[in-house]
Amino acid sequence: MTPPPERRRELLATAAEVFAAHGYKATTVRRIADEAGMLAGSLYYHFDSKESILDEILSTFLDELWDRYDAVLAAGLGPRETIEALVTESFREIDRHGPAVAIYQKESRHLAKQQRFAYLAESQERFEKAWLGTLERGVADRVFRADLDIRLAYRFLRDTVWVAASWYRPGGQHSPEEIARQYLSMVLDGIAVGENPEPTAKAHSDS
Amino acid sequence: MTPPPERRRELLATAAEVFAAHGYKATTVRRIADEAGMLAGSLYYHFDSKESILDEILSTFLDELWDRYDAVLAAGLGPRETIEALVTESFREIDRHGPAVAIYQKESRHLAKQQRFAYLAESQERFEKAWLGTLERGVADRVFRADLDIRLAYRFLRDTVWVAASWYRPGGQHSPEEIARQYLSMVLDGIAVGENPEPTAKAHSDS
Amino acid sequence: MTPPPERRRELLATAAEVFAAHGYKATTVRRIADEAGMLAGSLYYHFDSKESILDEILSTFLDELWDRYDAVLAAGLGPRETIEALVTESFREIDRHGPAVAIYQKESRHLAKQQRFAYLAESQERFEKAWLGTLERGVADRVFRADLDIRLAYRFLRDTVWVAASWYRPGGQHSPEEIARQYLSMVLDGIAVGENPEPTAKAHSDS
Amino acid sequence: MTPPPERRRELLATAAEVFAAHGYKATTVRRIADEAGMLAGSLYYHFDSKESILDEILSTFLDELWDRYDAVLAAGLGPRETIEALVTESFREIDRHGPAVAIYQKESRHLAKQQRFAYLAESQERFEKAWLGTLERGVADRVFRADLDIRLAYRFLRDTVWVAASWYRPGGQHSPEEIARQYLSMVLDGIAVGENPEPTAKAHSDS
DNA sequence: TATGAATGAGCTTTCATTCAT
DNA sequence: CATGAATGAAAGCTCATTCAT
């Protein structure tokens, strides 16, 4: 005997998976219904439109994400620890809402232009502020390297984390925390061994 | 009087931009035609179908990319230098064919399932072989850290590079080579200052 | 505790109002249910179908109307008095069943083609016979003008009366009898002052 | 070799007839297309939507109607002659655009609530001003009876005229001018013979 | 009596594609 | 080469209706 909100959540989860796998536009409402074991029209008993399903998936995900992020940002950690905590929370979010993150990754850029999804752009800004601010603090504290373009570093961190949603599958051999640790290790200390001060990219010249 | 192949290339470039901006499925053939200053039906004089436009964009991009990659791989460089060269070439490719790369990034996963786009999966495999092999060689040579999950590192490198296509705009303040250098600096040596042997991710524990 | 027939009548009244306001086709069964404070499905406990609701509204209205008309026609009045009585009864009917009359006005023409609503066409014929007969009798008795096209006069009278259902609201400042009196005054004696033997429509020539 | 606007006009005429016969809501786009000898989807090459077809039908009709009305109102005629001219123009309009008038008659009341069809409400107001003003002038000039409720007379005139669209068929035995003359004769001078000062409605008492 | 959930037919609309000119 | 007009399949959505509870 499942209470009504349960059914709704099931449908949203199903829809999120299909959206993530095939893209929002390419996903038919009928496909979602099939996957949920009902007819296309029946979905409209639960939701207003295909778009409102997408909306609910994305806003639910962002609400939850910001709950975690805000807790981290309010904890008064140092810059490095803040980055570590944000990355870890991000991978946990991928673990919990992988499909939602994948959809966000693929669709948010053009969705953000629409009135209805303006919150995506807002979230994006808060996002940027939080990460950029932490990186700047870290540079000031001499925890992060000063010779890097900080906006580039921000994009690098951001993408590095979220793009994982495209291949991560929950229940795999690595826990989200383990993946976070490895990612942080690479991002913070690099994949090269010890003391390599300068990359030698210029060594390779074009044809 | 421009020769036909020229017009074709223009149309492909236009189509690639629109596909990149809105997604393949969400892009209508009419939108492409509008952007090109013709009517939808007229596109069919130049191309068989919408899908064949996509096909030509992606295969052209991959052909060119592999030309460069093969040159790098045949040069007999060390593992670190190989990685540096591959990354540099990748950013140059983004510079030249940004939209094609963005499309590849967004659509290749589900396109690869189709017969017609099987070459995407093949390319993906060669890709993986080249990068993984180089990383393994680097670990053996003690150029890269041995304590990292090498498949994770591969995905990390791959995604880090290509995802840049989503924000990179040619003609900006950084040349592709400069961006490559910064990216490599982060990936190889990390963003943290000097001697941090261990990330402290475990410092942040969840409930 | 209201007896069932009472509830039924309430629902019919509600449905009639919504049908009248938005048209039969444009009215959803859910809208009626909303207005009645129940769910759409629940209406089907009381009625077989949306169409049967419409049927009951229209047939109830016509049954009642004919009761009154038959009484008038059986009363042996003169032509002018008959017309006056019919018009007065019509306005009373509008007062009592405004929405039903409005629905009849809007929908009867195409409904009459359906088997189920054949009684609309029959009623229409009896209607025509009663009014036309009275008018003819009036012309013969030299009570009504002989120079008018009698079928045109019939349509004129008929429409003049029923169309009032589209703006009449019960409880307004004029009683139905008062409106009937004014209408009859216009129809019988005209709106012009006294002795205007000939309209001068021909005075207006086209451009 | 018909020029493009011709095709458009044909389609609008076809659509208007179907809308008039079955009601806007009950008319399917497919039905219109059938009647026009094409497939439903093909209509969308010519029009944005079903609603925009309706819009174009109604606004075209009203534009034309007001051209005529304005000419009449600017002609400086006396009240009676103005009424005669307006009625005559109205019947001519019914003759030319019968279906449009029928649609207007049936649908304008609820359409006027929508933003897009606000011009219907505006037109309605101008309408009222023109007719009411003329009637008032006529009463002041002792051309029209002073003992009648002028708003009632206005509704009476207005409805009397337009409702004719529901039965009028062009090419019948009466020209629009002839019908106008008969209508005006009834409206101005009444259907009763000569000197009947008072209707005797009160002679019929209710049960 | 009424509800909640679903059905299924049919609707408006979109869009890749075709083709005579 | 390009246009204008159409096709036809499929999409999102609506809604009268059903039915177990």
From TrEMBL, chains A, B, C, D:
GO terms for molecular function: DNA-binding transcription factor activity; transcription cis-regulatory region binding. Residues 5-65 form the HTH tetR-type domain. It comes from the Bacteria. InterPro entries: Homeodomain-like_sf, HTH-type_TetR-like_transc_reg, HTH_TetR, KstR2_TetR_C, Tet_transcr_reg_TetR-rel_C_sf. Residues 28-47 bind DNA. It holds the Pfam family TetR_N. Keywords: DNA-binding, Repressor, Transcription, Transcription regulation. SUPFAM superfamilies: Homeodomain-like, Tetracyclin repressor-like, C-terminal domain. This is HTH-type transcriptional repressor KstR2. It comes from Streptomyces jeddahensis. The lineage of its organism: Bacteria, Bacillati, Actinomycetota, Actinomycetes, Kitasatosporales.
